Q: What sequence folds into this?
C-alpha cells in the first residue's frame, strides 16, 4: 500500500456509501410508557456512523491516532413514529457529501419488523486537529469516504470556541 501525500496510508477498503446496523431498544432508553426517549436516537446514529467507518477497516480510534478528530457540529432529527422497548431497529447510514473540512451523513431509523420509518436525521462532522482547530480532510479519507468536495470555505465557516453564532451566507 503506497503512502498518501499526508503520510498516512488509505484505509484497507473504501468506506461504503451506506450501511445498516440493527440495535435493540433497551429498557434504560425508554420512558415509563415504554417509548424510546428522543435522546436515545443520538447514540444510535453514532453507532451507525462508527460501523460505516469500521466497514472500511478503520476505526475512530485509528483516526484519532493519526491526529484526526471528527466532531459533530450539526445534528437534525425528525421523529416520525415511536420506537418502543425491545423493538429491533435498523439504523441506515449514508455518506451524503461534504466539503474541505466536513463530512455529511443522512440516516433513517426503521423498525426492523415492518420497516416503519421511526426517524430521519442528518449530521455534519467537522475535521479537527488534536488541538481542536479545523483542518482539511486528508485526501485519503475523502477518497475512501466518497466525499465530493465543494468549493466552499468550510474552514472559515466553522465556529471557533468563544465566537458568536453567525448566519450562513
A:
Amino acid at each position: 500500500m503506497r503512502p498518501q501525500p499526508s503520510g498516512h496510508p488509505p484505509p484497507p477498503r473504501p468506506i461504503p456509501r451506506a450501511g445498516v446496523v440493527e440495535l435493540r431498544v433497551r429498557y434504560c432508553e425508554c420512558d415509563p410508557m415504554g417509548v424510546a426517549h428522543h435522546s436515545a436516537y443520538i447514540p444510535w446514529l453514532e453507532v451507525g456512523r462508527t460501523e460505516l467507518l469500521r466497514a472500511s477497516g478503520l476505526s475512530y480510534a485509528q483516526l484519532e491516532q493519526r491526529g484526526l478528530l471528527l466532531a459533530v457540529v450539526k445534528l437534525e432529527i425528525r421523529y416520525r413514529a415511536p420506537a418502543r422497548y425491545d423493538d429491533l431497529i435498523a439504523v441506515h447510514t449514508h455518506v451524503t457529501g461534504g466539503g474541505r473540512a466536513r463530512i455529511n451523513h443522512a440516516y433513517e431509523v426503521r423498525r426492523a419488523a415492518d420497516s416503519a420509518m421511526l426517524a430521519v436525521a442528518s449530521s455534519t462532522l467537522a475535521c479537527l486537529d488534536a488541538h481542536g482547530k479545523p483542518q482539511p480532510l486528508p485526501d485519503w479519507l475523502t477518497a475512501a469516504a466518497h466525499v465530493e468536495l465543494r468549493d466552499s470555505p468550510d474552514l472559515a465557516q466553522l465556529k471557533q470556541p468563544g465566537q458568536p453564532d453567525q448566519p450562513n451566507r
In short: Residues 41-54 form the longest helix (14 residues).
